[in-house]
## 1
Amino acid sequence: MRVLGIDPGSRKIGIGVIDYASVQKIRAVTWKQISLRGSELVERLLSLQDELDAVIETWKPEIVAIEDIFVRRNVRSALLLGHARGVALATVGRRQLEARSYAPARIKQTVAGHGRAGKDEVRSMVRMQLDLPEQPPEDAADALAVAMTHALIGAVLDRAGGWSR
Amino acid sequence: MRVLGIDPGSRKIGIGVIDYASVQKIRAVTWKQISLRGSELVERLLSLQDELDAVIETWKPEIVAIEDIFVRRNVRSALLLGHARGVALATVGRRQLEARSYAPARIKQTVAGHGRAGKDEVRSMVRMQLDLPEQPPEDAADALAVAMTHALIGAVLDRAGGWSR
């Protein structure tokens, strides 16, 4: 199963693609952090759409994992994040891909073992568990983390027979 | 000049199209409130995109006016609004249309004469100033209000020679 993890933002996005067959066999396929082009928000949203379309076209994921909405301290940046996340979801949906949302605490719990893990801790665990040669850029690591969350939870459901694909 | 006003939401959107030649000649062309199809957010975002595309295709606006981001009391609904607004902006941008944002206080000031006007007051003024036979649905009235704001401010700039089209 190939999972595309997305960490959308209004200035850059992180993407992380993984393949998994079981909990023990999760492999990172590709990851990157993409700076969105344009000084205007609208340009950047279109850039996000184009980049995501290209990633889907190239890597052909079977499902998408994305962090659930959470309220940041700065509400205005949360609103901007909403813009980016909305465009990401619409882009994915337009390509008939299902997107699964995972709450931040769920991601931390799954990847780092506890729901209050710090961002750096989660990112280090991503690198370690995927056995990456170097630390991925922050947003790419976050995208890999949400993809891994889907793989780990999905694989458990697989074994329980509760996974529909 | 034909302006499309948009009031985007995650469950419904309001649209309002007006034509104007001067401050004295603003005419409502069409308006409606559209309920978005789908129980899932992603479906509704795609529905928003489709509806907006159809409106642009049918009414061929030259410019788009949209309310600026504002923080609602309920932060989660503000985030959802961000999703819808992001998709609306990307849809408009994809069609090479410029979108101008107007702050809520600016809209109230322009349409109702003071920046602290209530929503009902703004909506009544929209009906009165556009000489509509009946009160448009709330979201359609809000969309007409932002389109009017653009027309009124734009028309003033016209006379001052500061309007670029």
## 2
Amino acid sequence: MQVKEYIISAPGKAILHGEHAVVHGKVALAVSLNLRTYLRLQVTSGEKVFINMPNIHTFLSWDLTELQSLVTDTTVNYSSTTELDTSLVKRLRDFVGIPDGTTDTGGMAVLAFLYIYLSVFAHSESLPSMTLSVWSELPTGAGLGSSAAFCVCLATALLSAQGTISSPLTHQQDTARWSEEEMELINRWAFQGERIIHGNPSGVDNAVGTWGGILRYHAGKITPLNRVPMLRILLTNTKVPRSTKVLVAGVKDKINKFPSIINPVLESVDAVSRTCEDTLTKMEAGESSPKHYSVLEELIDINQHHLNVMGVGHPSLDTLCRVTLARGLHSKLTGAGGGGCAITLLRPDTDGSLIQSTREDLKECGFDCWETSIGAPGVQQHSPCSVKEDIMEILNSY
Amino acid sequence: MQVKEYIISAPGKAILHGEHAVVHGKVALAVSLNLRTYLRLQVTSGEKVFINMPNIHTFLSWDLTELQSLVTDTTVNYSSTTELDTSLVKRLRDFVGIPDGTTDTGGMAVLAFLYIYLSVFAHSESLPSMTLSVWSELPTGAGLGSSAAFCVCLATALLSAQGTISSPLTHQQDTARWSEEEMELINRWAFQGERIIHGNPSGVDNAVGTWGGILRYHAGKITPLNRVPMLRILLTNTKVPRSTKVLVAGVKDKINKFPSIINPVLESVDAVSRTCEDTLTKMEAGESSPKHYSVLEELIDINQHHLNVMGVGHPSLDTLCRVTLARGLHSKLTGAGGGGCAITLLRPDTDGSLIQSTREDLKECGFDCWETSIGAPGVQQHSPCSVKEDIMEILNSY
């Protein structure tokens, strides 16, 4: 008998334009970041469930009987994606031993796993034994949607194993994706995981992890854009710690202090997002040219200045922008700002040696830097040979 | 008999907020810059007129008979400040030997002098002999209103010598100023000089040179603000050459390219100017506090970002802002941008040694730097002992 195995990956997320302005009713563009989280699920014949998350040094296992005891009639009837079963969350916190208020990454990830596992299989005759291994290219806590990528992988693998959604990969394929309807379901379950981890997430991160590409986010509505190009970027983490809450509050204070000065800036950011969307649409329509890249670069520069005006810049980000501009590359912060991460646009013809030198410059500043892309596909099923060897090796080692 | 002598000074000009936006109907604040041009006029008994401008290496003299030959009936009848007597300008160009189109500083200054001299004295029985000496603390061609300060001094000294306006200085005074009506006349004659030198000036520079303080400039209307504080600043010249015309055209192009993005930025700049005006008014009303200085600093930072968005920044200006911010001081470009000059706000309690170190940092960048103030008085008559010794020495040496 063949062991049922699912290898799933989901991308991280970056904000291309509109961070902070989106809080005040403006358009933001969220993009998939091709630094991915990989999950391997093997349905096993033992009576145990193993989860191995070497990134966050979390390795746990439970007997099926223990887990079965957590399922109640309510869990079976409840099993829904519209509301969170808070009593189950409470039981799981007690079971794993995570006090209320604790937000440690490993603990939260385990809670999300157990919640989705128990909810998805609540209707099954019995809980299945399985081993999950997770490896992520994403740094955690950097605002790059690593928890959402994890939840999307979890939801996809568990729903596939349960049979609620298909396992779309055929023998001839390296990667495969799901139908629109199935992705809706994946996204809803991933959102439940995000709720457990973050409390009150916007839902943008899991949507990006599911659909990939570029999503327009406006007034609470998330719309995946059809047909957008993939763009090469450098993703840099300044590693300067920041509090998103404090930064968001700071922008609000600034609006209250100088409404006539800051409100037009938010208008301008809104127009930056819309102009960027138009430009990307034109590029994908086959007109992609250096002229379009110049526009994308100008928009990046403009928005970075606007974010500075909103007070969410940081000297580390100024340094980053200066260092990349010295190489002719344009950068902006992505996400909350005040440090954190930034994206640097690369053109299709940007020379490899120039990219290498820029990465070295950025590393010399003490930053982490990855060459990756934005606009990549969302959640995917992989054949083992389509996954980078080093990652496959990690996933196979558990 | 006592030799009639007039010592006059007028300040330069900086733009505090609103450069470029003013071209598109927004409010700008023009401020006097306490780097001054000094002029000494002595009515002599010889039959000659001497003008000595050591800054620009221009030393000329004419016989009164030569000059008298330039006065025609038209000059006498025309002598007006509403329109320029273009036939007189043409005769003066021929007389001095300046071909049409030449804009050399010395030549233009001489043209402006001769035009105002002949026009002001056209109604007199005969032209008076005199010696004028001019010394300026202002660099020329740096967008700091050096030509306007010169024209204001010229107009004031010549109108005083002719008796059209008073000579307000009494024996007990160090400095004195004129009535509002007299300043109107000074300003109109200075504007004629500016027209000769610049062709189509806005009139802001001569207004600042005349009234000093802070002027609001909006939709072609210039309004001196009552009761504004003097602010200590560093004035830095990056010495990066730029073309105001090219920069103005660049902003226009950017508005045409991204109207929905750039127009709100101009709105925001307008609000920066208005907020600054309100803050300065409050400060002069006696409420001046560190809180007000914080607002002024924030406005400077915001506007500098906006000017970058408009595309009139320059790496030299980025360096300047970074160098001063490292000392806790806030800077923005002033005027056309693309290099040129910048202002750095100093607080009343900014330490002398910190100012000294900052000036040294800026000089190490290859910039010229002056410690001065904005909002200083406009045109003044001076007693000899009220003028700095070194300047008086220069003026007396001719």
